[in-house]
Each structure stands twice: as structure tokens, then as C-alpha cells.
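Progress note, sequence design subtask.
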């Protein structure tokens, strides 16, 4: 009860009771804000560990490291375009730009880049020679051939020689960026390749007579000379030549001679330097290099 007393007019005045210590403690205690307290802080910490909660002030997402790329092409216009394309994409970091195969191999000896974009017909060294040389290098970069060649065998040759991808210059530029990202992630990206036609030795199905005929063609013999050398008629020579061209999958004498010379000098994809037969395994034939079919 609150104490009471008479005031000067004879009225009863009730004095407010002084709050008890317990009541004072209750009045001074602040009401916790929503989301405060040890339990709420624990929930926020768990959410941050899962990556699905708000980040602390000043904390920003960690961007993935850019992929170091080198480019090689005989065309200054293509080099400038690739420079601009890669520089505008934060996923990539252009570290080297060269104009021929020898310069590229020199740059590739330094482990400054993990992926390279090269043209198919590079000066001083063709892409085939570049790929062969890299197959003997322990820390070689992954190679994506970027070419406008009309040679339908180029993608298959790139695959045989250990390349990681092939992109036509007729494709949208974004296609090249997608292929580079996929190769960096460990994929190989090629247009359709009929592996049944991937052969290491185009001479393997030729008869002894056809091999001799091809060698004579490579020496520049005419049909009359061939007929005299082999002791047969010109019509017989023409018949053998048709069979020869069909087996080699060439259209004429010039292509047959070019193929023969590539085999002779070891520049045909998958050929041994002596022009001899290569190793074979199963249905897929190819020269082995560090576990890869070339």
C-alpha cells in the first residue's frame, strides 16, 4: 500500500510508492532486437560458411584467377582481333603474341601460359610441326587450333597430334572463348571427327606394285615412262593409278605425289620420320607419344 496523509485542505493525498529493486531492474532491461543474441549470431556464422547468408561488411566474392593465354597467327589482323577479344574477357589474360611457329615454340619453352591459340598454316613451322614438338615437351601448353583452312582433315590431324581443340574462323568469336574456357577446365573440343578415317600410314593398304608405282610418281615419271618401267600398257598404268588414288583418298597425281613426299620426309601426321609404318593398336592407328594418339 502507498502511504496516505491529509493535506492542508483535509484531503487525503496518496504518495506514489517507490519502485522496488526488482521492478527497477525490469524497467532498465532493454528489449532484445530481432536477430540479436548468441543464437542468432551462430545462425549467421553457419550461413556464411555455407555461402548462403549475408557477408560481413567489406567482404567481397573472390574472383577466379584469369587463364594465361598465348596466340600465334600469320595475320596481323587476326592477332589484333584476338588481342581485343581476349582483353575484353576477364576470364583470360593474354601473355604472349607471336607471328610464326618458331617464335611460338620458343615462347612455349617458358611456362608462362597454360593454353595457346595458333593458326593452322604458321610461317616457318606448320601447326603440325608445332604440335609434334610440343608432344615431346614435358610441360607443354594445351593447344587450340584456330583456322580458316578448307582442309577437312585438319581437325582430325589436330586431334591425332595431341591438340586440345579446333575452332573454325568462320564460327562466331564467342565460340573460341567458350572452347578456351572448356579446354582450361579439362575438356577437348572438336567438330565432328570420323575416327574410322584416322590413319597413321596411308600406304598400309597398298599392294607392292602400287607402292612402287607411287614411288615412281614421286620421281616425276610420266605414264609412258611408267608403262615402260613396269612392262605394261598405258591403260594398265591408268587402271593402277585409279586404284591408287582411291586408296590414298586423293583426286589426282599431284595430291598423290604431295602425300608421298610428306610420308618420305616424315611430315605427314602420324608418320615416322623414316616414312615407315607406325605402331597400331586396335581399330585406331597412330603414333604414341606420352600416352596420346598422334
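Output:
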Amino acid at each position: 500500500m502507498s502511504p496516505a496523509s491529509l493535506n492542508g485542505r483535509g484531503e487525503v493525498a496518496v504518495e506514489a510508492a517507490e519502485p522496488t529493486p526488482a521492478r527497477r531492474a525490469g524497467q532498465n532491461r532493454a528489449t532484445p532486437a530481432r536477430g540479436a543474441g548468441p543464437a542468432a549470431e551462430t545462425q549467421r556464422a553457419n550461413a556464411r560458411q555455407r555461402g548462403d547468408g549475408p557477408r560481413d561488411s567489406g567482404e567481397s566474392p573472390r574472383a577466379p584467377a584469369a587463364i594465361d593465354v598465348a596466340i600465334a597467327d600469320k595475320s596481323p589482323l587476326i592477332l589484333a582481333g584476338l588481342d581485343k577479344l581476349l582483353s575484353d574477357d576477364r576470364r583470360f589474360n593474354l601473355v604472349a603474341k607471336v607471328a610464326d611457329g618458331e617464335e611460338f615454340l620458343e615462347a612455349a619453352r617458358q611456362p608462362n601460359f597454360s593454353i595457346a591459340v595458333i593458326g593452322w598454316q604458321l610461317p616457318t613451322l606448320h601447326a603440325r610441326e608445332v604440335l609434334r614438338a610440343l608432344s615431346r615437351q614435358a610441360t607443354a601448353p594445351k593447344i587450340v587450333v584456330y583456322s580458316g583452312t578448307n582442309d577437312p582433315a585438319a581437325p582430325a590431324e589436330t586431334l591425332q597430334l595431341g591438340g586440345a581443340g579446333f575452332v573454325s574462323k568462320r564460327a562466331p568469336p564467342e565460340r573460341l572463348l567458350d572452347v578456351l574456357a572448356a579446354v582450361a577446365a579439362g575438356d577437348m573440343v572438336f567438330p565432328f571427327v570420323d575416327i574410322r578415317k584416322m590413319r597413321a600410314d596411308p600406304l598400309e593398304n597398298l599392294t607392292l606394285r602400287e607402292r612402287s608405282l607411287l614411288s615412281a610418281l614421286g620421281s616425276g615419271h610420266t605414264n609412258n615412262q611408267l608403262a615402260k618401267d613396269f612392262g605394261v600398257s598405258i591403260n594398265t598404268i591408268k587402271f593402277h593409278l585409279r586404284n591408287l588414288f582411291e586408296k590414298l583418298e586423293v583426286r589426282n597425281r599431284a595430291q598423290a605425289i604431295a602425300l608421298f613426299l610428306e610420308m618420305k620426309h616424315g611430315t605427314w601426321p602420324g608418320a615416322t620420320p623414316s616414312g615407315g609404318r607406325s605402331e597400331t593398336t586396335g581399330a585406331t592407328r597412330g603414333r604414341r607419344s606420352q600416352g596420346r594418339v598422334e
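The chain is about 40% helix and 15% strand. Work on this subtask will continue into the next period as scheduled.
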